[in-house]
Amino acid sequence: MVLTCWPGVTGVVMALIMIIVVSSSFNSIREYCFEIFFFGHKLIPVFLLLILLHSSVSGVIMWQSNVNEHQPGCIMPSNDSFIATQWNVQTNFTAHRVAPLPSPHSICRSAPHFKRQAPETWLWLLLPLVLTLFDFIYRRVNAKSVELVDVLSYEGELVEIRMRTHALTVRPGQFILLRVPPVAFLEWHPFTVSKCPSALDSTLTVHVRVKGDWCIKLRKYFKECEESLDKSEHLVRIEGPFYSPLETINQFKLCYFVAGGVGFTPIAAFLHHFRDGEMEWNFCRLYVTWICPSVHHVRSFAALLDSVAARLWKMNKPDAFEFDIHITRITPSDEEWLLDLEKYSFVKSRVTISKPLWRTKLREMALRHPKSRIGLFCCGPDALSRNVKKCMKMSFKGNSTTFHFKQECF
Predict the structure, then answer these.
(1) What are phi and psi of 360, to 5 degrees?
(2) DSSP secondary structure string for all residues of 62-118
């Protein structure tokens, strides 16, 4: 019976769409079956269009136009003689076995009349649909093709993608959407920029943690393209850049950055910008704690950290940048690579195989800078951000230091 009318058909289809959208929103689905999440949420515009069709059928909703003559709950007599008989009876209700008479206001004076309610749903959905369409067209028109310069694969599930851009302004801390048509023609994935284009080097770099089906296909595709002599033939598309809370790092004189794994990329973009002369060092103190699941994550940024520390030493600001690297897992092959860190003297002395004690670190920082305003930034897994934020609140007790917490989770 439900599927015999247009509102019933559209209602059932909308219910199925919502089931797909909700069930594909779980973390396990997003990480390991991203296509289901991606294409499932592409059904939302279809859902909105079905709402318009569902409510556009004239006559589904009706309203009574003669409420004064036919009040809700009134008695509708079957014929005129019934009305006359009821109003002429005056006495001895028991003898005549007639029920007490209703009040005149409870007698219907006419039959109910209904009019069709004009559809008004489009008034509420028109603006969201127009904005969604405008956003889709604007983003697709402003999407850019970039030239693939180089791809570096590191052990420990990390891929570095270097692209050459033209007339694209990117600030440290921002992120872009990346699409590689040979891997997935319609999928866009967000990545924080690890190196912004500069006057000296127009290369744009992102680091990709290989986790999930799309990232695995991406690494496989780039491995197949490594032997290609002309990498410029392999074009990728990007959208953006887009704003991120981590973009405000340089607004604080005292800053503490906590990174988990590939979450080091935002601060790496700031360090690249400083090393290339694109920005001044405005920090009184910059503290960085980096938790790495593997020593191979350090390989991609060891040269950068060493060069920034060396430049600050030449500027007579050796204490302006303090960083420590905590490696949580170690293998025999990692131990061999640790010996190669000797050429990076600044990095080698700051690498430890342990996990940081956040409450101790934040307490020491609060005692070191009393009555100060410190920007606390965290980029990494959600569990890391929650732990740091919890320890930050504990460090407030009995201390006048103010932490301004901002995070970016993945």
Answers:
(1) -70, -45
(2) EEES-TTTS-TT-B--SSHHHHHHHHH--S-HHHHT-PPPPPGGGB-SS---EEEPP
- Find residue 62's DSSP bridge partners: 116
CB atoms within 10 A of CB 130: 10
Which DSSP category does 200 fall into? S
Q: Compute the CA torsion angle 330, 335, 340, 341 (nearest 10 deg).
A: 40
Residue pointed to by tokens 């503490």: 256
Q: Which amino acid is at 142?
A: N
Tens digit of each residue's pLDDT (9 = 90 or more) over 119-172: 777 778 888 888 888 888 888 888 888 888 888 887 767 888 888 887 788 889
Cβ contacts of 71 within 8 Å, gap of 6 or more: 105, 106, 108
Q: Is 245 helix (H, G, I), strand (E, B) or coil?
A: helix
Return the bridge partners of 245, or none: none
Is residue 41 within a helix (H) or strand (E), and if so which, with residue range? Answer: helix 34-41
Q: Give start and end residues of each alpha helix (H) in 226-371.
A: 265-275, 296-299, 302-314, 332-339, 345-348, 358-368
**Greatest C-alpha distance within the chain:** 117
The pTM of this model reads 0.73
Query: Which residues, other chains included, contact 57 with Cβ-Cβ below 8 Å and sequence gap of 6+?
Result: 5, 6, 7, 119
DSSP states of 102-118: PPGGGB-SS---EEEPP
